[in-house]
Amino acid sequence: MQSSHIGIIGAGIVGLSTALSLQKAGYKVTLIDKEAPGMGASFGNAGLFADYARLPFAKFAMMCKMPGMLLDKSSPLSMQSSYIPSLMPYGWGFFKACFPAKYAKGKVALRALQEHTRACDRELLELAGAADLVKAEGCLGLFATEEGFATAQAGDLQERREQGVNLEFLNAGQVRELEPDLAGFHAGGVFYPDTRFTVSPVELSRRYARHFAENGGVILLDEVKGIKPGNDDVEVQLSDRSNRYSQVVICTGVASKDLLAPLGIKVPLVSERGYHLTLDIGDKALTRPVGWLDKAVFLTPMADGVRLAGTAEFASADAPLNPQRAEAMLEHAKVMLGANPGIKSTWVGSRPSTPDSLPVIGRVEQHPRVSVAFGHGHLGLTFGAVTGKLITETIQGQETSVDLSPFSVARFN
Predict the structure, then answer these.
(1) CA 233 from chain center: how many Å?
(2) Beta carbons of 131 and 121 less than 8 angstroms apart
(3) CATH assignment, 5-43+202-267+357-412
(4) Is 0.90 surpassed by the pTM of this model?
(5) What is the DSSP letter of 284?
(6) 391 and 89 in contact (C-beta within 8 Å)?
(7) 247-268 pLDDT, tens per residue?
(8) Which residues have C-beta within 8 Å of that of residue 255, sequence separation ≥ 6?
(9) Where are the domains of the chain?
């Protein structure tokens, strides 16, 4: 058993994965969150272990599309007007990340993470007895027009193939063979045979939390007000007391920005909200996640119904749910299914998004007893396990399996 006591702030999938990894390495670990494990942004994701996600969002082609997307109420992108001032540092960082050299470095960094995800996932899933929650049926991404499909084949999809992604192009008939209950809204699409998904993101988090607690881990339900790093430990200020830990890992998603600011560390992190609706699709059935890529929505078959997930709404984390965004997504689902599904529940949560699409992982140089693991955007589930491994290697003083310099919090200075 290691003598160090590690405090992890944030019990989403990244924090839970980090806690399991550190516990497995022999550390005493306390996990702190004001909500139960997995009840934040991790609760609402599309459920995909997105092995195909190896391209940064930040590129000039995307930037040129944004004004038109913001004016189109049916598009996946929207912005809360009162949140615009908070987006200024992010916007400047996004612009800088669009330059070809930066974009190329981002691709290298994402591929490096992806090369370790499957092995790291397997280790944690087996450890926590959660392998039954993950299915390996591949994933479909569909396009409404032949023109859009052809453009993607020559562009992003070709780039992904060059990044090592296993993918196949399918015509409309081949898609119908895989998912006969889909409507014929598409001209065909891409099939990712290696993509996995979970039938319950929240149950996955609960299994991780249960294994952690049953093996001596402490889960503390409390709000963290701030941290004070010292030479010998880190003080964590809670709602009515303070605890001290040998080291602290910040895994608090969007809230990480405010925790780091008093330490003199500025991060252009923003709240990019995602929505999901749990649908009852009646006697129809889906075998795997299906995305309408033109609209950036996914239908994923889960234990409690079909989850319709998507949209990117730049808005305050505590802003109320925007019913127009949910209604637009539902209209897309109706087209995809050729039917009017029932709505069982509606949810919104905030993804922590960075301007360059890369997470923030590693030790804080100014405060070596503080490490960070946040900013995974759409890829918290995908990169949770590998992030936990990298943080553990960092705390152990080992050479990390992946070069962490592209993910350093110092890159924003």
Answers:
(1) 30
(2) no
(3) 3.50.50.60
(4) yes
(5) -
(6) no
(7) 999 999 999 999 999 999 999 9
(8) 10, 317
(9) 5-43+202-267+357-412, 56-99+134-196+269-353
Tokens of 305: 């119904």
Pick the CATH number of 56-99+134-196+269-353 from 2.60.120.10, 3.40.720.10, 3.30.9.10, 3.30.70.100: 3.30.9.10
Pair of tokens at residue 385: 């396990």
* Both structure tokens of 137: 């049926």
Does residue 263 come out as left (phi exceeding 0), alpha (psi in the -120 to 50 range) or beta? alpha
Count Cβ neighbours within 10 Å for each residue of 98-128 and write b for 16 or more, e otherwise: beeebbebbbebbbbbbebbeebbebbbebb
Distant-in-sequence, close-in-space partners of 254: CB < 8 Å, separation ≥ 6: 41, 269, 270, 271, 317, 350, 351, 352
Residue 243: partners with Cβ closer than 8 Å, 6 or more residues away: 7, 30, 220, 235, 236
pLDDT at 1 over 60: no
Residues 301, 290: Cα–Cα separation, whole Å: 9
The rounded distance, in Å, linking the Cα atoms of 111 and 175 is 28
Pair 30, 54: CB distance under 8 Å: no
Element (H, E) at 220: strand 218-221
pLDDT tens per residue, range 283-314: 999 999 999 999 999 999 999 999 999 989 99
